[in-house]
From TrEMBL, chains A, B, C, D:
One of its GO terms (cellular component) is cytoplasm. The keyword Nucleus does not apply. The lineage of its organism: Bacteria, Pseudomonadati, Bacteroidota, Chitinophagia, Chitinophagales. It comes from the Bacteria. It is found in: Cytoplasm. Belongs to the DapA family. Its main location: cytoplasm. This is N-acetylneuraminate lyase.
Length: 306, 306, 306, 306
């Protein structure tokens, strides 16, 4: 399989919910159009931002199907679901489902209750799942802060190289730039290394990243498109200023309780995805009011998606 | 609901697998008879030892159903499944299923990908799930080494007390004896605190534990029954010697790669549960031979289940 | 060297300070008499509780000399200083000083900035320091929560056994009861294993501990003496109740900011040791008032030292 | 005090040792000349690389004095010692000594046995020490991987700003680029933010770093000077290639046991600093032979200092 390298911004969409906590599939076509309109090139669905772990298998299938249906025929918009999950059995079933529903690729993260003891065991897991869909690009999703699995990806590549033809690359959500750069340069830049820390995009561009997957591209894609353009045209001071704006925005996630803040941002850009499920806590109305004021003070409307 | 306090040994059974990795339900009646014969008083199924996280929801249901069928009518043998899992939706479905299949109680652990930020959020999760089966005892399963959720259980009890009538207690798999004892003594010893560290049973008995859930009770229950008897009859030197035997046995889990070692022990006692699924690694044949020799050197046959 | 096993309570004294933060040596004879009066059998000085790390080498020498002077001739009260520290050079100098000032033994903990990579390297450190004073008992102080060095002590004993004649044992301040018990039973109970978690004393007594070093023995020794007596006379319910009282008292350390709370307790028992040095924070006057009320509510005066 | 921003490469020198482990002061003038010859602009002495924690206070003074003596009158070469250390008393004494021996500035890291509970307490520590030398630039050294103190530096700046006139900036040895960039941009780039991760220099340059402190500048300064030049002249591909060479070199530190590898590199460039003290382990002769071969295979001589 020829490995395609994705470029530009790939959003990690939230899973829209109704007020009662059930999945709101009807919003997905609107959501897709919104992302397209703001220059986003793809969607990494039912991942961390998409609350995959909080959904049942049937719910994940329904979300995958909805994204597959509305993006069908759009060759310029790549959709890939995160398969799991701690159960490889579930991952394999979901991989087959993804193949039947117009997904571009599949992504897999390390089992995170029992954890693979070393790179060799993690590679065994990857191969087991990826072989289910040998004609689809397969990405590994590296996010140690959530999985607790902190095997260097350079070790994964060394172990995996040559063993899995549909292995495409890594969505890299971790701040080990030495490891990331070593992976970028592995075997003449063979693998597609997608950067996953929005707040450090400029540092990743500097060492060679060209594609990125993130949650803030859902609501602030124009900011990051400008950042990439500034970097590519050697306007480094401009790029730094934009990255600092991104950081100031992301500081609000820390201030207002983390991942649930993302759905609050979505309300502000007019794509109401409801709330997060437990165990994530959502803002109170009072917090949302303060949050909205803080967002306005940042000049959010000047760089937000619309 | 009156809270019953369980006593004696509750095993956390392995989920039997065929050589191809599929679940071997046919072994479960034999397994149950084996545990009964060795003095075990109950089973905590599809938990950590039972590889619940590696099974699909349908597989978990099948295992639950099989245990429910063979233990039906045995009032002296309590079976409870672990419900989850990161998805409360799945947990609620499984709770309802447990109720329909002769389970004594249900157990729930903290979501471990997104993690509850504090005791109040964890309590919300407990209530959400437990209310699905208001007439069944509901246990919280505390195992921070695997979930990464290390909220003191004393804080959980303070937060939860009076809010959830079917809350029965905690399976406590952690070495915070100060926290454990505070929970034991909470509200006049109201809650059922089940000790979950086999290697420290004597220390837990000393401060008041009376029931225990563990994986080594699958294959070495006689050792622990003797330990409890020695403790109860003030033969402390005998109890210490038995605990040291337990420790020497458990050292082999560290030496041979952790949890998968348990299924190797089961082969030695004649209840072949197959192997662990990925991401757990199993012993090679060569390792198994060395392991068997180490086990023999411990005098295992003198205290093993049979 | 014959290894003596210490028994009973050894306090880890606070280092008395004047209001300006300088060391108050003049209080030490009074402090010693106070401990004696309350049944304490020895003192582990300039350790964690004694703020050894916050003192200069000269200040540590002065404290050691003061304890040596006032305890001279008292064969029933054993004093040992903690030598370090990250610099073995300093540790060796202090060991020689300890020998010249009437100390019973010396204690050493793992360097905690650069950390020994394994048990063999830690043993090299121990030998380097202990050989300076080959005729003094040498204790290793295991406190991973502060040093970040979490090498199992069973591995240390296996590596060290037979190589260091003046190695006496371990002050064990960690909750790994499996490791502790394995060390207790090592080579026919050869080594002196001193328990260092006051809140778990009963659990440690159950598996065979006979001596303990701790900070709450400074101000609540009678409680623990009663606990040991209750345990030794098979009054387990009484021992549990006393341990719970100890836990309730220790909960206040968590509530009021940790180690500095200890010096607040000392004020209440009339041995005013001043405050902790930075980076430890002390209570405000307002906090001290609330703390004092909480202490009174525990019935502290019924079991406190006096 | 006007805050000067340092630029270019500042080495963190090893402390030279004789074969018997004593400090070799006589090499220091040679060492200084070697760094100057290779374009290094300053020295951060008795820090992590310089084994400050393994030296006695008197040894640290001797090293400081030796560097002060040979660099006297060289206004283009800035020397600053790390003061501590867990004892603020020692830090203050060393600060005064640094002032009397021609040091440009002083640096201080968080106490790492007892750890400051929050930014406010850490700021109190900084102020206590820095006020001893109010006319010297004072740097905070942020290295959570060794101190275990991971307070965001943005919080430190917010807490400290306006309270300490001689606070100059931060030596930042951590991979939190969001925090680093926020500090760079704080109060119109007021503070001097020195990057401390050699393997990520390019990513730090991209977001605005201009000065760097590191251990590999001791033996490979030409590589990094070329990297900075390439970056400044928009030759990004060249800069990336050089950063990858740096990474390949730094991979050998992991392979051969960490920090001690640095002194092995120094042997290869002809400035033999001896070995590290315990608890650091040094290479065996056999390891050194393999290491030397690996180094040669990297083409080290083409970019090493000479």
């Amino acid at each position: 399989m020829t490995i395609k390298h994705l470029s530009g911004l790939i959003a990690a969409p939230f899973t829209p919910m109704y007020a009662d906590g059930s999945v709101n599939l009807s919003l997905i076509p609107t959501y897709y159009a919104f992302l397209k309109r703001n220059g986003v090139k793809g969607a990494f669905i039912v991942g961390s931002t998409g609350e995959g772990v909080s959904l049942s298998l049937e719910e994940k299938k329904a979300v995958i199907e909805a994204w597959g249906a509305c993006t069908k025929g759009d060759m310029d918009f790549k959709v890939m679901p995160l398969l799991g999950g701690t159960s490889l059995t579930d991952c394999m079933e979901l991989a087959r489902y993804a193949r039947s529903t117009n997904m571009y690729a599949v992504a897999f993260t390390a089992p995170f209750y029992f954890k693979p003891a070393d790179a060799a065991t993690l590679v065994q897991c990857c191969i087991t799942v990826a072989q289910t869909v040998p004609d689809m690009p397969f990405y590994y999703y590296h996010i140690p802060v959530l999985t607790g699995v902190d095997i260097p990806m350079y070790n994964l590549l060394q172990e995996l190289h040559g063993k899995l033809p549909n292995f495409a690359g890594i969505k890299y959500t971790h701040e080990d730039f030495m490891d990331f750069q070593s992976c970028l340069n592995f075997d003449n830049r063979r693998y597609d290394m997608l950067w996953g820390r929005d707040e450090n995009m400029l540092s990743a561009l500097a060492i060679g990243a060209t594609g990125a997957v993130g949650s803030t591209y859902n609501y602030a894609a124009p900011l990051y498109s400008d950042l990439i353009n500034a970097f590519n045209s050697n306007q480094l001071e401009e790029a730094r200023m934009l990255q600092q704006q991104s950081i100031d925005m992301i500081h609000l996630l820390g201030k207002y309780g983390g991942i649930a803040t993302g759905k609050a941002f979505m309300k502000l850009v007019g794509v109401d995805c409801g709330e997060f499920r437990l165990p994530v806590r959502n803002m109170s109305a009072e917090q949302f009011a303060r949050f909205s004021a803080d967002v306005a003070a940042l000049g959010f409307s000047q760089f937000s998606a619309r």
